[in-house]
Amino acid sequence: MRVHNTGKRFAAGVLAITLVGGAVPANIGVFDLSGSTVVVASAEESEQNISKATITMKAHSPKVLSVELDGTILQKNIDYTVSYTQKDTDGNTIEFSEPPKAAGNYQAVITGIGDYQGVVYRAFDIVGSGYEGISIIDGGQGTHTPSNEHLWLIFDKNKNTKWCSRVISAGEYANRDSDWLLFEADTPFAIHNYVLTTANDTSRYTGRNWKSWRIYGSNSAAAAEYSPTYTDHKVTDIDEDIWSLVHQVTDDTVLEPVNFTEFPYAVPHNKCKYKYYLLILDDIVDSYDNIAQMSEIEFNADLPVTVTHVDAVPVGCLNEGNIECWYDEYNDKYYLDEEATKEITEEEVIIPTIGRHTYGEPEWNWDEKTQTVTATFTCEACGEKHTVDAEIQRSSIAATCTTPAYTSYTAVVEFEGETYRSKPKIYKGAGALGHSYGRPEWKYDEKNHTVTATFKCERCTDVQTIDATITSKTTSPTYIKDGKIVYTAAVKFNGQTYTTNKTVILDKLTYTPPTITYLKGEGAVKLQWTDIKGAEKYGVAGFINGKWRMIDEGEGTSYILKDLQAGKEYKVCVATKLNGEWFTDPSNAITVTPKPKAVKDNPAVTYAKGNNAVKLSWDTVDGAEKYAVAGYVNGRWQILAEGIGTSYVLRDLKAGFQYKVAVSAMFNGNWNTDFSNAITVTPNAAATSPYPKFETQVKDNRIGFKWEAVPDAEQYAIAVYRAGRWVPMKQFDSSVHTWTTPQVKSGTYTAVVIAKINGEWVTAHASSNAVTIKVF
Ligand SMILES: [Zn+2]
Ligand SMILES: [Zn+2]
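^ Those are the sequences you sent over. The predicted structure of the assembly is below.
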């Protein structure tokens, strides 16, 4: 980059330097910018040439506050760097990178880097001060202040030079804006005192003395950029976020209209250390000619010890106290003695406070008339009293069984973040309700010997258990009705008698029929049975024709059954009448029979012959119930007939045949089977005209014959009755015993089978042997 250090290119339009702080500093002679040089880099080298940037700096500070190009704020060390130059007494340029601190004239060299190029030079000076480590940054003063009486001279440690600020407008004195001075300390410090030294001719121009001023301090970097705003020529709008007031004097009474005289001001108890300070002169003693003057200001001057007595202050709850001491307000130092030989620290002087009162429970003040309550709090430490209106809280509690109703009033206050409650005032209401027991719960023991009654309160949990007296009444059971025991329990409780009943059922008596025995008699039996307790009557019943029928009744436990047949069994039972009702349980039935009769011999039998029959006869046998006629048939005795008579005709006997018969008598229902009385009988001998026995069958108009052989038969024949005699029609050998006719006409036929014996057809008695046959 080529730098043109030539005045040819210096044109007013290129100069783009803004002085912060308004126009005021521009006419401070020493800082006249007419000597400044602005060098602009070649325009064609880059469109991003920094030469057109707007540079913001304070006139008397090396700090480049901002570099702005086409609305963009450029970044230090990214877009540009800052270095410094100064010409020495020989005119040589000295370069250095750190911001200068020594008083003198300098140039800030702003060099584009990165996306930027070009260089801008900005002139500034460092005013410095007569004090080590303090630099003046900026200030404002009257527009017509001569260069040899400028603002900085108040800070040069030389009382022969002075700041004499004036404003002259159109030949007349005008209202002046407040003067101000901004300076920076390398090391932050707290101001304990400052000393103002009046000027060389203050006694002559008494109105130039200061009247009202302010000193602010700050540790904010923004403090360096301070620029004033004015309202009616007075500095206003001090930003309290940046600035803190350190000291202020209004209508000063200390300064005197004298020349070259020091007036110290104390800033007692100040501990705040600041890097930046701003002095604002608000007013002067007489503004008629609008000239302010002061030759020196010195901060924290080495002033002689001057003590003032400090009374001991007892520590309070809210305020700290201190011991008795002597205070040097100009040097912010404490001493135990007036001679200031025994210095002590502030901590030793101060008796710290807890910063609050210590209140305990308040005193409650109930005003029954107005129904209001106040709470008076008394500080336990200092006795300070504080009375607060309380709120009254009411609560009602209903009566219970054992406690009365009551209403309680409690006063409540909120005080210093705490809630306080008074003891409740309790007003008794309706009395206790008393327990309310309902019916008791009864409890019997297993044997129903004891009973308890438990009463439970319906409202609360109270329980009362009381032993009851118990009585009982028994109704015995019968065979037809249950019995019962009724237990009655009774208790007296709270003057009232409660009773309850419990019934225990006794089961009906169980009927067990009597056990029956009997004795046999002749045609009779004697029944006997066990006695049934409570029996009113007994009944004897017989099982007759499939049904039980009551035979007789009576009160005894025996009975004779008469008219019984020996050998016969009778089923009987005994019923019992109990409680007016018959109980019949035939499970006790027994079968009885009378004594059996003596069995006699069967009777002797005689007989008389008849034709094909015999008549049997016998005598009666004592005790016989019946008689039977038995025949010996096929090797066995068979009863042929029975009855009660003493004779019997046996018919259909064959002549010439013998039959073995006997008569049996019945005793006790049993036949006497002793057939030793058997006899052999035979009917009369018959004429010899035997006829074959035969039978016939009709089928398909044919008649079949079948016959039995007869002894001595030589031939057989079918005979029909013709012309008054039986004629053999069809004859057969004796070996033939069947024959079937050819078909015959429907009609009635009479026929008989005859035999030829000894050469003659036997036809006598044929009619009685013939049969009639119908053919349909
Ligand atoms: Zn207190
Ligand atoms: Zn209760």
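The chain has two helices and 64 strands. The radius of gyration is 85 Å.

Shout if you want it in another format.
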